[in-house]
């Protein structure tokens, strides 16, 4: 399997992918989503980094944020322009409070590092909730399993594939 490797959107070459990216591609295929990873020469760990590299608005970046909800992981898919309102997130998850998962807990739940967590293809079954603001776009960009890799997806298809309830998560 190959991924598209870019230093910018206009400078591309192919390279062999790694197992984490392959897992995202294969899971996407099983969910009916065509995942074509774009890999950059530098990490895109923040929404601003990813938006700059892709050439899109930061609001079109999907932040996959792992939280702890009464000891269980919860994944929030949030627009890159938004901050999460923890009270709204907790209400969506049906718990009293959410706490940000630390790096070890996030990796244990998803199989991916913070900044590389995709919206699907996780190591465990995790409830997923989607920020309503992502649906304002025809396409959004999500992490593809590595801190230097992303993929383009229609947010409505992403929501359908993940089964994520669409909720207001914005602070």
Please characterize this protein's 3D structure.
By secondary structure, the protein is of the alpha/beta class. It has a single domain, classed as YbaK protein, CATH 3.90.960.10. Helix content is 26%, strand content 29%. It contains five helices and ten strands; from the N terminus they run ββαβαββαβαβββαβ. Strands 1, 2, 3, 4, 5, 6, 7, 8, 9 and 10 form a ten-stranded mixed sheet that branches. Strand 8 and strand 9 form a beta hairpin. The longest helix is centred in the first third of the chain and has 13 residues, at 19-31. The radius of gyration is 15 Å and the shape is globular.
Topology overview:
Elements: E1 2-8, E2 11-16, H1 19-31, E3 38-40, H2 47-54, E4 61-69, E5 72-79, H3 86-93, E6 99-100, H4 103-110, E7 128-131, E8 140-143, E9 149-153, H5 155-162, E10 166-167
Parallel strand pairs: 1-3, 4-8, 5-7, 7-10
Antiparallel strand pairs: 1-2, 3-9, 4-5, 4-6, 8-9
Key phrases:
single chain, 171 residues, alpha/beta, YbaK protein, ten-stranded mixed β-sheet, 5 helices, 10 strands, globular
Say how many strands there are: 10
Q: Which CATH class is shown?
A: Alpha Beta
Beta content? 25-35%
Instruction: Supply Rg.
Output: 15 Å
Poorly predicted ranges: 5-15
Mean pLDDT: 91
Give the overall form.
globular
């Amino acid at each position: 399997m190959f991924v598209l490797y870019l230093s910018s959107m206009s400078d591309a070459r192919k390279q062999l992918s790694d197992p984490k990216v392959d897992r995202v591609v294969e899971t996407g295929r099983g969910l009916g989503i065509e995942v074509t990873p774009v890999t950059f020469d530098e990490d895109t760990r923040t929404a601003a980094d990813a938006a700059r590299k892709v050439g899109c608005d930061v609001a079109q970046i999907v932040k996959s944020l792992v939280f702890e909800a009464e000891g269980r992981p919860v994944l929030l898919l949030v627009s890159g322009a938004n901050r999460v309102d923890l009270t709204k997130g907790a209400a969506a998850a049906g718990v009293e409070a959410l706490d940000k998962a630390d790096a070890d807990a996030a990796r244990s739940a998803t199989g991916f590092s913070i900044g590389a967590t995709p919206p699907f293809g996780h190591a465990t079954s995790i409830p997923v909730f989607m920020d309503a603001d992502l649906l304002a776009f025809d396409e959004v960009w999500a992490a593809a399993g590595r801190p230097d890799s992303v993929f383009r997806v229609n947010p409505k298809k992403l929501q359908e594939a993940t089964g994520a309830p669409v909720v207001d998560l914005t602070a």
